[in-house]
Amino acid sequence: MIYKIKLLVLFLMLPAALFSQSKFEKKGDKAILKGDYPEAIIQFKNIKNKNAEVNRKIAECYFVLGNYDQSENFYNSIQEKEKNSADLLHLSQINLANDNFTAAVLLAERAGELGADPNEVQIRLDAVRKFTEVRKANQDLKITKIKVQPQGKCLGIFLLPEGIVYSEAGAGKIKSDKNYKLLLAADENSEYNETKSFAGKLEPKTDIGAICISPDGNTLYYTRWYIRKGKQQMEIAIAEKKNGEWRSKESLAFCSRKYSCCYPFLSPDGKTMYFSSDMEGGYGGMDLYVSKQENGKWTEPQNLGKSINTAQNEIYPRVLSNNQLWFSSDGHAGYGKLDLFFTSRNEDGSWGPVINPGEPYNSAFSEYSIQDIPETGMQIFVSDREDRGLRDRIYELKKEDKKRVQIFVKDAHSNDIIKNVKFSVLKALENKVIVAGEGMIEGETSFEIPESELDGGILYEITVQKSGYMDRVIEYYPSSQKMNIEVSLDRISEKPKFSFVSELKPMAYPKKKITFKNIYFEKNEDDFSDEAKKILDRLYRFWKEFPELGIKINGHSDSKGLEQMNLDISLQKAEKAKEYLVKKGVDVSEIEVGAWGEEFILNGCFDDSGCSENEHHENRRIELIFVL
């Protein structure tokens, strides 16, 4: 597979600059010119006093290798004032690959402020918008590896009724002029278990791959590699089947020794060929072209235009069963290296916008050579994501079947169905909300889980809530033997009655009878203690039993420090208690908040009173008041 790495600005042009470099930096720069990025990283890391430029080179090397974590670390080691627009665009790309869309947008905008190409910034901003649109559409897709896999690098796949044809270099060292061979992964009930040689006698001493076969099965078009003037080039050659064997013929007429043509793909009728080429007149790198077969000859190729082609590389064109044109590119905004993209024709015959399908199609590494199997709804493509660019694997992608889990909610005492219940479902390990506070009218509802998770030991937490009842959290491990869940709720009044009320203290309040309880807090801690949360939880459960109660929350502080600061702290703590109770389910309209700062000191402990810290702590309190 051939694709061009985006150029890195490494300031290697001036001999004087090279002369002033340390020996390690010189060796690192030479390694970069050879494309040996791991060696370059080793040399740059040997430099003791690394400046921003050295860290930038290390970050760029990791970026090219697809190691985004290390790349981000070294970019972030550069001081903000020393970061340039290229640094910020790379960081934007890294955050885009990590699904951190907000950071990707902010970094791209900052890159624009520092002089980055406005078009490149806009492309990245548009990509973020598109990724958020496709995320929901892809959430039911499941990606798996087929059983038979290439042993090393792969030059693409082609689907036949009997299986998948793919080319591979193998896992061993290069020992001859021919490194790539064609293999067939035989299809047995959509399981690819065995592999055998395909077209083994076709050009036995030449690297071949990236094939397509005519609809009648008698003509094979394949990419043939050769060396010209020390440079690797490609052409599209033809082979015909005779007596069950493939026999090589000439290359296509539009091929030339002046440029490369590769990665052919035929339309379903065999009359249109899409391919990649770096012939003169393109937009840069490898572009996508189309040629038609007329009177037994292929027409002069036509470039698919700038809406598809970029200054980088567009390769492996594929027309899928829905007539969408899919291809791989490292020029359009994506997750990293080669991403899959697709486009469709408009009514006037022009190509529509190019769309990145997002995850799980794409990753920080390379994805290419996609095809589909309409009968099964499956798509197949190649990626090197799992081995970080060292080995290619063939993946299947299909919409996963779902199974529905039924939930029934009953009163624990009467066994009657409970109406108007709220429930939530959380996928615990991923902290992913599946259902968020939905209501069930007749005490019955359901939610979906992927079929593959049955009997897989995956934890879901189901929370059931009903006013007047104790909240219930159920741990559920999806099982083919347990697709129905029955939840029993206990009435709050059936628990030891007034266990919380017994702790409340009567308090004078104009024209109303009220009770209250204090909770205490630390001034410099953002959150409440576990003990304070337990009290708030019990207050909430008590309110559920008597929802007609109003709640007043008064915040008080000690007298240490500035008066206004203490007033602000008491308000913050009261508001935080209100926020906690609202999240639990208390009606926000039933809560009134007051803040008194140091106005009501309980024990005479003012600034100069000589009180202990424990005595000051008694004044840092929140009053939880029920208005009866």
Automatic annotation (TrEMBL):
Keyword Signal: yes
Entries under InterPro entries matching the protein: 6-blade_b-propeller_TolB-like, Bact_OuterMem_StrucFunc, OMP_bac, OmpA-like, OmpA-like_sf, TPR-like_helical_dom_sf, WD40
GO cellular component term of the entry, any: cell outer membrane
Domain of life: Bacteria
Record carries keyword Cell membrane: no
Gene3D superfamilies, per the entry: OmpA-like domain, Tetratricopeptide repeat domain, TolB, C-terminal domain
Domain OmpA-like, chain residue ranges per copy: 509-628
UniProt name for this protein: OmpA family protein
Pfam families assigned to the protein according to its UniProt record, in alphabetical order: OmpA (PF00691), PD40 (PF07676), TPR_19 (PF14559)
Places the protein is found: Cell outer membrane
Signal sequence extent: 1-22
Record PANTHER family: LIPOPROTEIN YIAD-RELATED, STATOR ELEMENT OF FLAGELLAR MOTOR COMPLEX
Main location: membrane
Keyword terms of this UniProt record: Cell outer membrane, Membrane, Signal
